[in-house]
Amino acid sequence: MTVLCLVEHDASGVADASLRALTFARDLAAGAGVGAVLFGPGDEVPRDALASYGVTGAHVVEPDHLSGYAPQAWARVLAGLAGDTGASAVLAAGTDRGNEVLAHLGAILDLPMAANCLAAEPGDGGTMQIVRQRWAGLLLEDASLAGSPALMTLATETIQAAAVAESGPVAVHPYQPSLDEGDLRVCATESAGHSSGASLATARVVVGGGRGVGGPDGFAPLEELAGLLGGVVGVSRVVTSEGWRPHKQQVGQTGTRITPELYLACGISGAIQHMAGCAGAKHIVAVNTDPGAPILAHADYAVLGDLREVIPALVEALKARSAAR
Amino acid sequence: MEILVCVKRVPMVGGKIVLTGDGQEVDTRMSGFTISPHEECAVEEAVQITERLGGTVSVLTLGPPAAADQLREALALGAGRAVLLETDGREWGPIATAAQIVAEVRRRADAGAGYDLVLCGNEAADTGDYQVGVRVAHALGWPCVTGIKSLEVSDVGARAGREYRGTEESFEFGLPAVVTVKEGINLPRYPSLPGRLRAKRAVIERHEPAWQDEGLHKRALRVPEADRKQAEVLGAGADAVPALMRVLEEWGVLP
């Protein structure tokens, strides 16, 4: 089946979530074409990256026709292309934008949309048999999805991006959408200032702090540790709902989902909503006074003890190590 | 400013999620229910807006009769009016839910007190469909912004902001509009005692919409297999730090 996939990219390349979505799209297409849909200048189309993920055609909307992010207009483009290409499925990574654009597409086409899918295969009667996340991945739902094209966003943290063995050519097709005023009513203005420091979502190391930190004044040692490890501080929901730290530092179902090499969770009991946010961590170490804390059932290693003793000792060890080198 | 806030009754889950024997639902015999977190912030945001600009906050939910509890939670936080779209307990999908919200918006407009703003959560904690607000906006022909973490509303329009890949992006649009918000947009207040008493006495408007099927059919729910085991304890207190350093070295995460 022909599959269309929304690709998020910028001058630095294709978003990792979109590479994972393209991998999923290629498996679903099973040898038929994968069309990528991109918004941006034609000369910035990442042809090599698209080719190595098995994309056969790139449909590009240039800024002359649509500049900036306008969710309903992007969905209108996908609707037009789905019709033109006869696509059987339209996919996007389950990012903020992916979910938003596919929701608009569902509304425009009057079709159901399944969010955060992990698996899909064609079933009986033109349905798609899918597995999707509920509770931010704490539960899985087996479901059937009707409607053509099948509209799905993907739980990309569960999908490994995989390049093809031999990449073919990518045909670039400029696309001129016909948009009405309503499609362009909501359009994003991006602020010039990029946030400083490593982003929580992409940090290689995250030092987590929970209720055990004790209050807003207890985070300085965690910040110092994160700095020494080249990482950032993340916190549990209780920390943000108590107002100890800003919400943007929250790891969890209602905060950020992280994918670090190391998550060092300090004074965090491990409520399941928190674990939904750090399930993508490669290694987890828990520092906790309670040997029965639920987080120990998800961690590789644990240090039993007060973080106010353990963290400064770890900071000293790291400083001694770098001084010796 | 007339604001409609749409909230969902969801199970309160803590240590782990247990399913009913038939795999169709979360077992809630040992847990309570609450308003889905993003929507609790939507209620707070609406109350703050009407405190500044005047007007009424109406809160709506679609659910079983017991979902009146969640409407009373919202009334205790400062909502002035509550609407229960009563179901027989079956799980409604996002298309049917959106259609019933649209019906309420039209009823209110016909009554001469049309809404200026509909607030929803970005996604429900349980089903995570990410689309009810967008579908409501399309049916009404209103602008829609989602995933909002900051909102300024005036009598003529609104400006909403959110994060995108580490930058801030903002949207300006006219009213009426649909805005879906995320936790973090504010810190919800605790209900006051007078608020609780008012909520207890409040009359809830009830409607019984007819069940409507849609194209996404749940077959069963399951708990994903855990891929981690019980943690190996490296030691206690600062004495465990050398062992921890060796582990971090082995994983290649030290700078």
What features would you describe in this structure?
The complex is a heterodimer of chains A (325) and B (255). Chain A is of the alpha/beta class. Chain A has two domains: 3-184, Rossmann fold (3-Layer(aba) Sandwich); 200-323, TPP-binding domain (Rossmann fold), CATH 3.40.50. Helices cover 27% and strands 26% of the residues of chain A. Chain A contains eight helices and 17 strands. Chain A has helices spanning 16-29, 47-52, 71-85, 96-109, 220-228, 237-241, 272-278, 307-323, and strands spanning 3-6, 9-10, 13-14, 34-39, 57-61, 89-93, 113-122, 128-134, 139-145, 150-154, 171-174, 189-190, 205-209, 232-235, 262-266, 283-288, 301-304. In chain A, strands 9-8-7-10-6-1-4-5-11 form a nine-stranded mixed sheet, sandwiched between helices. A five-stranded parallel sheet of chain A has the order 14-13-15-16-17. A two-stranded antiparallel ribbon of chain A has the order 2-3. In chain A, strand 15 (262-266), helix 7 and strand 16 (283-288) form a beta-alpha-beta unit. Chain A is elongated. By secondary structure, chain B is an alpha/beta fold. Chain B has one domain (2-207): 3-Layer(aba) Sandwich (Rossmann fold), CATH 3.40.50. Chain B contains six helices and 14 strands. Chain B has helices at residues 37-53, 68-76, 94-110, 132-140, 193-201, 241-251; strands at 2-7, 9-11, 33-35, 56-63, 81-86, 117-121, 144-148, 150-153, 157-164, 167-174, 177-181, 204-207, 216-222, 232-236. In chain B, the strands form three sheets. A seven-stranded parallel sheet of chain B has the order 7-11-6-1-4-5-12, with helices on both faces. Chain B has a three-stranded antiparallel sheet with strand order 8-9-10, with no helix packed on it. Chain B starts with a strand and ends with a helix. The model of chain B has no long low-confidence stretch (mean pLDDT 95). Classes of the chains: A alpha/beta (325), B alpha/beta (255). At the A-B interface, helix 4, strand 7, strand 9, strand 12 and strand 16 of A face helix 4, strand 7, strand 9, strand 10 and strand 13 of B.
